[in-house]
Amino acid sequence: MDNLLWGLQTTVLGMGLVFGLLALMWGLLTLALRLDRPDEPQAPSTAAEPSPGPQPALTGGPDGETVAAILIATLTHRAQRRREAAPAMRSYWPGSLLYASRWVGAGRARQNHGWRRGYR
Amino acid sequence: MDGKTNDHLQTLREMRSRAVLGGGVKRIEQQHARGKLTARERLSLLLDEGSFQEFGALATHNVSAFGLDKQRFPGDGIVTGFGKVSGRRVAVFAQDFTVLGGSFSEVQAQKISRLQDLALESGIPLIGLNDSGGARIQEGVRSLAAYGEVFVRNVMASGVIPQISLILGPCAGGAVYSPALTDFIIMAGESTMFLTGPDVITAVTGEEVTAQTLGGVEVHTGRSGVAHLSAPTEVAGLSLVKLLLSYLPQNNNEDPPQVRPDDPTNRMDESLNSVIPNDDNEPYDIRDVITAVFDHDSFLEIQPAYAENAVVGFVRLDGYSVGVVANQPAFMSGALNMDASDKISRFIRLCDAFNIPLITFVDCPGFLPGVKEEYGGVIRHGAKIIYAYCEATVPKISIVTRKAMGGAYVAMGAKQMRTDLAFAWPTAQIAVMGAEPAVRVLYREDVKNAADPLARTAELVADYRAQFFNPYRAADVGQIDEIIEPRETRPRLARALEVLRTKVQQTPPKKHGLSPT
Fold first, then answer.
1. Which of A89, A96, A117 to mutate: most B Cβ within 10 Å?
2. pTM: predicted TM-score of the whole model, two decimal places
3. ipTM of this predicted complex?
4. Does CATH number 3.90.226.10 belong to domain B3-245?
């Protein structure tokens, strides 16, 4: 009987300590989130006020104009890379054997019949 | 590592540092003050980051005449090596104006020749950035022989690997012939090209002329046709090289890169159905047709300011590189003359050499009549077009949009020019000559004897137009394969090229043909 009581006391003490620490961490996290929350927006006044300008698209991020500028720059760069046939824009590498036609390869070899590397 | 090796490494590092500085800090500053970049700055802009592999950086001349022994610079005024442009291997050289004005020396020639040999053997494009005052006079005949070494290799590489010359400063005397032997010349900024400079011209002929008015960008892109493209700045010129290269293969055995298509081949542009004006003599801009038919934002016009009555350039169709040749009705009614013939024929041969299919838009009232043209040899100039089309073995497709008269019809890609497919729009007018001159020839007596010659002429002209000013006669006899709605042009061309992509055609064995010159 003594052993059973001793066991129960240890279990309650151990579990209590664990749950107690978990509750403390929960409380600390809740406090941290509450402190980190952005300021509440002010309640709109009853009188109609002129808009100060474009509202930021993302809280804490770049404003709408910056996002638009980045978007245009990215698209322009992409178009330029496409025009220059950049590697990412190519279907295959020049001279790739994967896409080579044997018919064309043999035909071009015949077309260049008179060609020699050592021309001297 | 022992001390001796360290010394060797230190020596090498010092020599490399000297080579990187070219003619020295002062000369580099002067180059910058002129608004120009140094050879190495240009290469860093042209090539993919970290891809340049130089060789010959420590080569110097061993000439002592005229105090040249005191002016020895590692590299001897030229930077040569390999690199990558958009991931593609290229051989490249850049003349360094900071070293003795970039003057062309025996060592320069050795370095360029070595590069040319390696480029040809490796089958990769060669790009030259020219900025040189001319031959190194102190080296005498050595410098002249050096030119010859480069010229012969330019010719041997011609039609095998693409060769592009970007002129970024002066290019005078014999030095002009090396770019002239390459496939493309791009002039950037305030660059100049001439055989004999303004001072020599003044001394010999008494003519007063400046370097720019003698051989500036406008002269060679607009009047002489020596240069194919121009750019306002060096940076734009280097960017143009990258763009141009994207349409070209690595060598004559390969195909140009295909860009992943982003423009559907089935797209039909309704505006094409109304692009031809109702009045036969009203002009329209053929560039509108080209941009509507091919992949959007893919048109790179070659020699846009020279012989504007013809339009040539590169486009993409379903991502594949295609050469386009067209008459320009908005300039001289699209009539062919000597310059236009030269422009078209050279472009055809270039596309043929590098396996780029050709698409021709025909709207040509004929060859330009005139004493000046005949005296200038328009016959042999015009024959160049016929020769080039007949000789070309790449896929060839023609589309008659409006006028196709007389010899110009034959020259501009008739079926007999080994054209694979001939399309025509319903607005096509395929005839031996225009209605009025035809009536004058055919019905001279009839009109003369008529009670009202003017009314009779009008009647006969109307009859002639009804008979010949349509594509159906040509379709009857098989000269036209299909008459299509203008808006169908893109899908039709895409499907035709899909079939013709594996076309192989041979010409009889010969040393070389004799193209009219």
1. A89
2. 0.84
3. 0.70
4. yes
